[in-house]
Amino acid sequence: MGDDCQTDWDHLALTQRYNHFCALSDTMNIFNKIFAIVTLIITFVTGLIAILFPQTALAAVNGLAAGFHASFFPGTEGLARFAARAPLALAFTAAIGGLLFLELRSTRSSTIEVTKATGGKVRVTTASVEKKILAGVLAMPDVLSAKVRVATRGPSLTAHIEALTPDTVDVLTKGDEIAGSVRAIAQDQLGLKMQDKPHVIIQPTRVKAPTPAARALFGRKKRDGVDETVGSGAK
Fold first, then answer.
1. Is 178 a member of any domain?
2. Domain range holding 35?
């Protein structure tokens, strides 16, 4: 019973990590769009003022610079002034560089092209691809639970799989089996192009063998026509 609970907690942890990653990705995409719109508006207004009233704009910039220096770097001259400003310049550069990276990085597409289609341009949703791969992985022996996430880059697909297995299985062998199954589903069944090999994470967990009482209960249910897995933690 305790191991079944542990398996459930492991599965819940995998689900929470996956949902957190998706929510964080969506939040960053929204933030990037809002930041880009606000930046364009500020740049537009500032540019118009600088073009129409250049002397006023220059005086305003000089006033802001003088006020900034008086407020944050009073009494500093020469190299001391530069040394005091350098950390602030580095922090500003890191912030702008990080925002540019988030803005320019490729976003996760919701569809991917079926490269083997010959009658026309056919696209399939990444959600359906994830569902198909997940069903194939869960159908494999010794897979208690799994999470699948696919990413697209142009017409190519990258698959990330996290699988929960008993600690008695050979991790290397099971990882190769899952990778081969994912590749077969994506390329042969769905006609998609894989960018690289599937990325598989195996998480072994201890599964306790059923007790004699549990075996007896399982045998009665089998005789009564009820098919239920005991002691594996599978749902």
1. no
2. 28-104
| pLDDT tens digits along 19-47 | 555 555 556 667 767 877 888 898 888 88
- How far is the CA of 86 from the CAs of 47, 61, 82, in angstroms? 27, 20, 6
Considering Cα of 159, then 160, then 166, then 170, what sign does the dihedral take? positive
Q: Which residues contact 111 (CB under 8 A, 6 or more apart)?
A: 123, 124, 125, 126, 152
Q: Is 72 part of a structural domain of the chain?
A: yes
Q: How many domains does the chain have?
A: 1
Express each pLDDT in 168-189 by its tens digit. 889 899 999 999 999 999 998 9
On the 0-12 / 13-18 / 19+ scale of CB atoms within 10 A, 37 is exposed
Residue 165: inside a domain, yes or no?
no
| Helix (H), strand (E) counts: the chain | 6, 6
Residue 177 lies in a domain: no
Read off the pLDDT of residues 61-115 as tens digits, 9 standing for 90 and up: 888 877 777 776 676 666 766 776 778 778 888 888 887 776 666 555 677 878 7
